Amino acid sequence: MLNLLFYGLGIIIIILLGFSLCKHYLNQKKKEFEQNNKSYNDQVLEEESDNCQPNEIKSFQIQTFQKAFNQNIYQFKKNTSQISQKSQQSSKIFQNSSILSIKNIPLFSADDKRTEQVQQIINYLYDKSCRKRNIEEKFKYFLGHFIDFQNLCKEYNIKKLEIKQKLKQLCSSYLNVRGDGNCFYTAFGYQFLEILLFKYKNDEFQNFIKTILFEIKLPFQINLIDQTNINQNQDEQLRKEFIFRLEKLKSIQNVDTRRKMLYNAYKAHEKEDEEYDGCFYGLSTIFFRNISIHALDQNELKNMVTDRENLLIWETECNNNEIVIQSLSNFLKLYIQLIFFTNESFQMREYGTTNVHKIILLIRPGHYNIGIAPE
Question: If exposure means fewest CB atoms within 10 Å of the residue's CB, which of 73, 220, 250, 268 is most exposed?
Fold first, then answer.
């Protein structure tokens, strides 16, 4: 708000300064006109008066004055027009540059106190859930490695050549997701953030963020199984921190660097360094659980989801996920392919139209992974 106020005051000051300079210039030209006209008349009269009669002198004075007056008026109007045009051009350029600057200003800046509060909340969630499990270090990461097609078939027990060929047309590799009750939101959320950060243009990205913040005012609520929830003040801090981190990622000019930082931030389960504190996954999961609730509310089938409350419970699956997927497809304008593996084969279900951004979800009972489309 302060930046906008300063820009507004700057515009007003420049306009007032322009008017003042223009007025000063006009007064100066008026004085020059009067002096030049007097000098010109005196000079002409002095040269011609000896050869003229009194009446002729008077007539000559009038003609000379009229000629000089017309010349000065023409020059005066010309100069005034040039000043006006330059003033308008300068004002227009300034206004345009101000609009561009305001448009590109991040909505939130770094805030150490806010970040510290968010880290405490997210680490509390981790301590109460995933950190209680004694597993190997490599399985603690929220995202695993990219796995090729041969190992994809092995993982999902696809043996027949015909089925392999059909599958390869849809999905040529996959990214492993940590197995917990948040796996759907990880598999879906990571892919949507890739769309948001790499396929959305800057104005589309900003419009999406503003929609989340100002139009639907998306909450950042989350509950633990023991019914512990996030209070309203914490909700606000989580929302601001998540948007700040998204804007920071979007601002990275090098696409490869941005992609690497998204992946590293999402998979981190604890603080690794100053860049990766392990909290981005938690913030993202809270975001996608809340946006699922909002999307579901726009769906005519929402009453069929009898365990709606599970959407806001950390590490808890929803038993009616297909309706949630359909809702997300409609609300976020996505084409979602759900590849369901069973009995050494698969079925594909589609949501949305094919002319929009695509997400591939691989599922077998109890777990989702991220599908990668063939290039």
Answer: 73
